[in-house]
Amino acid sequence: xxxxxxxxxxxxxxxxxxxxxxVFGAIMDAIYNLFSAIGIESLGISIILFTVIIRLLMLPLAxxxxxxxxxxxxxxxxxxxxxDKYKNKKDAESQNKMRMEMSQLYxxxxxSPFGGCLPLLIQFPIIMSLFQVLRNIxxxxxxxxxxxxxxxxxxxxVAGFGDYITSLNEAAKIPVKNFDIASNDKVIDLLSTFSxxxxxxxxxxxxxxxxxxxPLVNQLTDINYFxxxxxxxxxxxxxxxxxxxxxxxxxxxxxxxxTMSSNNKNMDEKQAATNKTMMYTMPLITVFFVVTMPAGxxxxxxxxxxxxxxxxxxxxxxxxxxxx
Length: 324
What we know:
Elements: H1 17-37, H2 43-57, H3 59-74, H4 76-85, H5 92-108, H6 117-134, H7 137-140, H8 142-155, H9 161-171, H10 184-191, H11 196-205, H12 210-224, E1 225-226, E2 229-230, H13 243-261, H14 269-292, H15 295-323
Antiparallel strand pairs: 1-2
């Protein structure tokens, strides 16, 4: 239903990502059920709140990473001075002395050259787990999975069901791996990639039980709609869906600009030029992914980038106060 044609509905069982994804999935399920209990069944609201909660949990790592990056940038002139001092001395003794002086510099300023990488490495499985949940919504939100199961139960007894579903899978851009028509999870794997037009064809094909599946498909559609945008479809650039890529570009540009403005002060011209290029290319890369994937991914990306923008401003201000 969301985030691409990558088809792996069943919950991840991989060593690290699997357990983290289950925790994230439980959070997503709780958010959805909380709003569902008061009559609001909205995947858009669930995605936004879920993203904010996960970003809040990752805040300490982000703060540590940014603090380390700024610390490393602050000592760049001194590091360069040491490197220039030993520039033409390649013997082992000189190289050892250079490493010792650099190590001493790190200790004096309480920074580590790996301080910015370690939080990033820790965040990587978290981010992968996050995507695992978002691209496999029915595997983690049981209420939504229940709707798919009801649809399958309605059509499984119709003559030709197996052949038709199998042909859909074979025609898919990325067919479900190890597809088994007897497995409800595998069939949901396929159905969860459907766009609005795919559901229309599906409902038309099973018109003999249309009175049973149409309400269920409509329920899924209602859940997917957020502010007039169907999160299961690619953004319609001729409608309000255009807001998804446009806002993503604007926010991503502001994130890049805010992040780099705090890091450019001690960079040489070459590094500053590279950062400036990245500041303009990152939003373009973002918009490429956003317009080619379902709008649900764009909403997640927009929420995450907006949070990152606020986070970056707060961290920058906090670190400025520490310097005073």
